[in-house]
Amino acid sequence: MPTRRIFLSGLALDARIGILEHERRATQPLHIDAEFDVDITRDVDDHDIHSVLDYRRLREAIVEECTQAHVNLIETLSEQVARRLLRDFAEVRAVKLRISKPMAFSDCAAVGVEIQINR
């Protein structure tokens, strides 16, 4: 089956993440990049948003999953987000997700993890 790739690049949000004491007291910024391989099940109708997977819904699910509760490890968060996306969006065949913490170290732009899950 043919697929279409949807991507979000540089999504920035504040989340409660981290196992260290200072990370437990305040939110910190996260940057998220995501790619979704989506089944093409019908022709695109330029006048009907329902003919495609609305990327606003994908973004909304990511933001909600990242901000609903404190998570200790970025690895845990990335797995939770990927599972949610596959659970909520049946047309998604594969998810590639990169979550990074830009403030983790002063001597690098960011540190993070990347996960890829295929159905």
Automatic annotation (TrEMBL):
It comes from the Bacteria. Keywords: Folate biosynthesis, Lyase. One of its GO terms (biological process) is folic acid biosynthetic process. Residues 6-117 form the Dihydroneopterin aldolase/epimerase domain. GO terms for cellular component: cytoplasm. Gene3D superfamilies: 3.30.1130.10. It is an enzyme of class 4 (lyase). It catalyses: 7,8-dihydroneopterin = 6-hydroxymethyl-7,8-dihydropterin + glycolaldehyde. It holds the Pfam family FolB. SMART domains: FolB. InterPro entries: Dihydroneopterin_aldolase, FolB_dom, GTP-CH-I_C/QueF. Its EC number is 4.1.2.25. GO terms for molecular function: dihydroneopterin aldolase activity. Pathway: Cofactor biosynthesis; tetrahydrofolate biosynthesis; 2-amino-4-hydroxy-6-hydroxymethyl-7,8-dihydropteridine diphosphate from 7,8-dihydroneopterin triphosphate: step 3/4. Belongs to the DHNA family. Catalyzes the conversion of 7,8-dihydroneopterin to 6-hydroxymethyl-7,8-dihydropterin. This is 7,8-dihydroneopterin aldolase. It comes from Bordetella genomosp. 4. The lineage of its organism: Bacteria, Pseudomonadati, Pseudomonadota, Betaproteobacteria, Burkholderiales.
